Amino acid sequence: MIPIAIFGPANWFAMLGWLVLIAGIILNRAWLRDKLAGLYWPLALSAGYCVAIYLGFGQSGGGFDSLPAVRQLFSNDWALLAGWVHYLAFDLFVGAWIARDASRSGVSRWFMIPVLPLTFLFGPAGLLLFQGIKAVFGKGAQS
After folding, report:
1. Residue among 10, 34, 12 at smallest CA distance from 95
2. Rounded distance, CA 23 to CA 81, Å?
3. Distance from the Cα of residue 129 to its chain's centroid
4. Distance (Å, rounded) from C-alpha 36 to C-alpha 42?
5. Number of domains, the chain
6. pLDDT in tens, 16-71
C-alpha cells in the first residue's frame, strides 16, 4: 500500500476514536472514554505509526537537529504519514486523558465542548485551555 491510500482511512479511524470518546463522556461510560478511546484506539494508531516508520526509515535522510533537516526527513511520504499518525494517536490519547482528568477533578462535562475540538485540531492549545479551566473550576480551585 502507498502512504496516500492509507492517509484517508487513518483520518477516519482517528475521527471514529474521537466519536467513541465523546460517546463515553455523554453516556458517562468510563470504559468507552478511558479504555477504548483512551488506550486501545491510540495503541492501534501507534501500531500504524510503527509500520509507517519501518517502511520509510532512512529513505529521505534528514534528522531532528534543524528545521531544514526535519523538512528533509518529512520529504518521504512514509515519514510524513508517520508524523501525521503520530499527531492523530497522541491528540486522541491526550483528549481522553483530559476527559478522564476532568471527571476526577470535578470539571463539568460542558467545559469539554471547547476543549476537545481544540485538542483535536491544535493539541497543546487544548491541553493548555483545559489546565486553565481546571485551575479555575476544578475541585479545590477556590481554596
Report:
1. 34
2. 28
3. 15
4. 9
5. 1
6. 999 999 999 999 999 999 999 999 999 999 999 999 999 887 787 888 899 999 99
